[in-house]
């Protein structure tokens, strides 16, 4: 008879591995199942490889900003060498993650998990048994079902390209489209980004998105807005893209960056009474599905938060406690989110759009920081911020930043918001000068 586990975790990405480790540390027996690469999206084909490629883009951008200001000559990106650097990291992730799980004495199984018609959980057809099951199967790229969709490639393909094609087109103006377009352009490609309406990155402050697009346009990226792509055909000259009107473009590589779909439709969830849909597996505020013994965390769960690696880990930590001893409903901390373009666009907390609906409660300060010492020193083209302050308390409750160092600033701002640090408290601190942290007092 097969071993009976306390918990079976499906999916070996950031959510699943954090869950299995947490359970093990609490003395529970756990089996973790992965059908593809151990480590999941983030380290194999998401955040980490992207940020390695972006490091070369940042170095090139820094040198570009200093032309005529003390540096002569802009370095070129050597794509094959950069890809070797990326693979130097990603090639070790699968074995490293598996080794880490084994060293914690967590049982692992490679195969496809599926709930069969009698409700038994199977892995490649073999039954496995556990008291509880945690589903952490993530998401996959959404491929638009247009004519010629078979020519679409995905972010996964882009992050492992042997050579950068001459012409690259992205369809969908979200995180993936903006980030990978920035990398492709810096690596020398002619880049188009097609978006179906006039509001790419629609959850971010529209003025800062406009400023980001102006910066990227100046770098040579072409935005094709209000284009509803209908067809891709292969011609002698490349891939021909058309809509139902007069849009036409020929490109060498077309990446579908029009969102991601939850991996909830191939698990046999209907056989165990678990409800799911376009936004993922339905869970209550204890991350429990309609089946009391089955939970869902990370990208695959339908929760009111963005789908990000730190939140996958946060949900795993919450559920580890919940499965070990019943606790309070999950509540999420303020969570920063950012687009790693050039410059970077980052937001946290109350948005400027939310603040505008309650003018008595919030005031919004717009700052052009381009000439501040921090940005002058870097010779950055533009540095903007919008800060949302709660009128009654004077506390910062939200912020949007657009700059080359927005990713660093937003984490400081997250700390100020989450810990409710007032200007008076801030001024009791001494931080190293001159650094981005020494600018914080001027943001209130
Ligand atoms: C290009 C890109 C860039 C990103 N950049 C960032 C970033 O900068 N910052 C950030 O915070 N987030 C980023 N993300 C999002 C981040 O990668 C995800 O939020 C994170 O990986 C979610 O973790 P997860 O464990 O829920 O899912 P995943 O990491 O997707 O892991 C799920 C695992 O489950 C496995 N699986 C699926 N079905 C089955 C099955 N039936 N049986 C067994 N195993 C199964 C999959 O193979 C996969 O390994 C990015 C994503 C992409 C695509
Ligand atoms: N920096 C980060 O933290 C980061 C980076 C990459 C991905 N991610 C995660 O992965 C998720 C997926 O990213 P994504 O960029 O693929 O999705 P997204 O949902 O952020 O963006 C998809 C975009 O495609 C557009 N779109 C949809 N249909 C279209 C069509 N027919 N034609 C043109 N445009 C169309 C949408 O309006 C949207 O703007 C993100 O929501 C995020 O959770 C995070």
From TrEMBL:
Keyword tRNA processing attached: no
Membership in a protein family: Belongs to the class-I pyridine nucleotide-disulfide oxidoreductase family.
Q: Domain of life here? A: Bacteria
- Domain Pyridine nucleotide-disulphide oxidoreductase dimerisation, residue spans: 335-438
Asked if Zinc-finger is a keyword of the record, the answer is no
The cofactors it requires, by name, are: FAD
Q: Which GO terms describe its molecular function?
A: oxidoreductase activity
Could you say which EC number(s) this protein's record lists?
Answer: 1.-.-.-
Q: What is this protein called?
A: Dihydrolipoyl dehydrogenase family protein
The record ties this protein, via Pfam families, to:
Pyr_redox_2, Pyr_redox_dim
* Cited SUPFAM superfamilies: FAD/NAD(P)-binding domain, FAD/NAD-linked reductases, dimerisation (C-terminal) domain
Q: Which residues form the FAD/NAD(P)-binding domain?
A: 5-315
Alphabetically list the UniProt keywords: FAD, Flavoprotein, Oxidoreductase
